[in-house]
Write a structure and sequence with these properties.
- With 630 residues, the protein is of the alpha+beta class.
- The chain has 17 helices and 9 strands.
- The strands form 2 sheets. Strands 2, 4, 5, 7, 8 and 9 form a 6-stranded mixed sheet that branches. Strands 1-3-6 form a 3-stranded antiparallel sheet, with no helix packed on it.
- The longest helix is centred in the middle third of the chain and has 66 residues.
- The protein is flat.
Length: 630
């Protein structure tokens, strides 16, 4: 009789240990098998630092009274939030399996989970984003070189034509390998980044949306124009190598090479746009890290100030020399934090203005964070903390420091949530301010030549209050004009002062209307960007080149005299994709892409190629204008 062996069990996925946030959800795949039947499968979770502690057991599967033969494949979503592990903890997850004879086995390979902070998570995804950007930049450089070789082939002497074709084809294959042909390819890096955001339940949905968009475009490039260009060059290479007739060989391939060059143009434009898009994602993440670092520094300083406050309460006399030195150092650090905050908010304001035209979603996120900082008077509170510390008023200092920590978190939350609600609230506030300003203007225009002092004083107070409210919603120019009008109304009443107040209020009205129109345009651009994202998702469901060969597929056969044609790409879909991307590139980047045309290609084709890109730019611009029409 064969002995009843114990079951076997192992965690199949994740195949590697992970660094995750405390709120992460980890999908775990387990395989369990027994020579007769597996009765139960469970997971054991315990801190690595406490090996003697009994692990928390999670029952995953329990068989019935009748054994079921065969291996058991089980998947389970481990919710770390239910365990509430603090950052810095390391957990060990072990699979257990038992059979109906009561024999239990523990999996050989445990899964280790290192719990990290949000700051470390941001550093990790930033590193992955930089690796992805570097990979795309390398692909862009190789594609440019291949495109140059293809252009030169149209004017190469017949003797060197075969080697030139082989070189261009080799470079084109390198692009495919860099983008999708290895574990370190751009597609794999993008998928890894997206999985990091999903697994860790990162609240910033826009960051995940950016990476998903990059992944969709890369997949469509690889299966569309990139695969088609590679196959055509491979076929041309084979035809050149097998042809005995060298005369006129280049002319026979001209049409195919022109088609390759067109597809390479599409790849170049898309890669340049993706690199720029990732740079903007990195910029947002940098602001998040800067604010998170300020919050961490302020929280540490709050703890030190509380310790100083306790020491001051215990000592009836003055602080000791050591405590005074600690207070002076704390004052210096507090002022340093205030300076860092001012610099960070200034950079965020500049970036918000520059992103408004190209990335409305990111611009609104920055604006929402800036609005939260202004409404909470964050800069004033952080300076107040330094002043209170300098005066040794520890109670007031800790109160101000605690408020700074809370307000920094509010700014981070607004940036993560995307600012949609804040953007709509600001538009409503701008419209309300316009109505209030209209009412004040009508009241001022109705004043008699010699108004009662009480009437002008009341209007001046209303105008000052409006100016303060305008500052809160970042309508700075209109706020300054309203403040000037309030000063005119406050002074001695005269026809001249009334005329000046009316004129200044009209300036405020124009400035406020212009600010409202700018904000409405930003919201319209946001809607257009989201429509583009939906289109990209639709493209993912229906790839743009169904007939294009997969990476690694064998190219079609070709004869010595002719080149086999590749299956046609859905050019309308590809052209739409390229037009969208080309239209988003800055003018300088467009010029950089167009610059090599006169050097790389024969003069007889320069006009056609320039016209091709000009139509792309004009079509993209026209499309944006139509979408932004009210």
């Amino acid at each position: 009789v064969a002995p009843d062996r114990a079951p076997t069990v192992q965690i199949i996925d994740p195949a590697q240990d992970l660094a995750v946030l405390p709120e992460a959800k980890i999908d775990i795949a387990i395989n369990a098998e027994d020579d007769l039947a597996v009765q139960a499968v469970s997971l054991g979770v315990a801190p690595v630092s406490q090996p003697d502690q009994a692990p928390a057991r999670i029952e995953l599967d329990k068989g019935g009274e009748q054994p079921e033969r065969g291996p058991q494949a089980i998947t389970y979503a481990l919710e770390l939030s239910s365990l509430a592990p603090p950052a810095g903890t390391e957990l060990q997850v072990v699979a257990h399996a038992s059979d109906y004879a009561g024999q239990e086995t523990i999996g050989v390979r445990p899964l280790r989970l290192r719990i990290i902070s949000r700051d470390e998570f941001l550093r990790r995804v930033d590193g992955l984003t930089k690796r992805l950007t570097t990979t795309l930049e390398r692909s862009l450089a190789i594609e440019r070189e291949s495109r140059t070789r293809v252009g030169q082939l149209l004017g190469e002497p017949t003797a060197s034509y075969g080697s030139g074709i082989a070189s261009a084809a080799s470079l084109q294959r390198q692009v495919g390998q860099t983008l999708a042909g290895s574990p370190a390819s751009a597609v794999q890096l993008a998928e890894g980044l997206a999985e990091e955001y999903r697994r860790n339940r990162w609240p910033d949905e826009h960051a995940l949306g950016h990476i998903e968009s990059v992944r969709v475009i890369l997949n469509n490039l690889v299966t569309g124009p990139l695969a088609a260009a590679e196959e055509t060059l491979t076929n041309v290479t084979r035809a050149a190598q097998s042809s005995a007739d060298r005369e006129g060989l280049r002319d026979k391939h001209r049409e195919a090479l022109l088609d390759v060059r067109t597809r390479q143009d599409e790849v170049l434009v898309a890669l340049a746009a993706l690199i720029r898009d990732l740079a903007q994602v990195s910029e947002i993440q940098q602001f998040q890290r800067d604010l998170a670092e300020l919050k961490r520094g302020q929280a540490e300083l709050l703890s030190e100030t509380e310790a100083l406050a306790r020491a001051a309460l215990l000592n009836t006399d003055e602080l000791t020399s050591q405590q005074r030195l600690a207070r002076q150092q704390a004052v210096g650090r507090q002022r340093q934090l205030a300076g860092s905050l001012a610099a960070t908010l200034g950079r965020m304001k500049q970036s918000s203005a520059s992103l408004a035209a190209s990335k409305s979603t990111d611009a609104l996120r920055l604006q929402a964070a800036l609005a939260a900082a202004e409404q909470s008077q964050l800069q004033g509170r952080i300076r107040e903390a330094a002043d209170q510390l300098a005066a040794a008023r520890f109670g007031q200092a800790t109160s101000a420091q605690r408020a700074v920590v809370e307000h920094l978190q509010q700014a981070l939350d607004q940036m993560a949530e995307g600012g949609d609600r804040a953007a709509m609230d600001r538009l409503a506030a701008l419209k309300s301010a316009e109505r209030r300003l209209d009412a004040i203007r009508e009241a001022v225009n109705s004043l008699p030549a010699e108004p009662a002092p009480r009437a002008t004083a009341e209007l001046a107070q209303q105008t000052r209050q409006l100016a303060e409210d305008l500052e809160q919603i970042r309508a700075d120019a209109a706020a300054q004009s309203a403040r000037t009008a309030a000063e005119r109304l406050t002074g001695e009443a005269s026809p001249e002062s009334q005329r000046s107040a009316r004129q200044t209020l009209e300036d405020a009205q124009r400035q406020l209307a212009a600010e409202r129109r700018r904000h409405e345009a930003l919201l319209s651009k946001l809607k257009a960007d989201r429509r583009d994202a939906l289109r990209a998702a639709a493209v993912q469901q229906a790839p743009i080149d169904q007939a294009a060969p997969k990476r690694g597929a064998k190219p079609g056969k070709s004869s010595a005299a002719t080149v086999a044609t590749t299956a046609p790409v859905d050019r309308a879909a590809v052209s739409k994709l390229v037009k969208d991307l080309w239209g988003r590139l800055p003018e300088r980047q467009r010029e950089e892409l167009l610059q090599p045309l006169s050097e790389e290609f024969l003069p007889e084709y320069a006009e056609e190629i320039e016209e091709y890109f000009r139509v792309l730019a004009e079509t993209a611009a026209d499309g944006d204008g139509e979408e932004n029409q009210p």
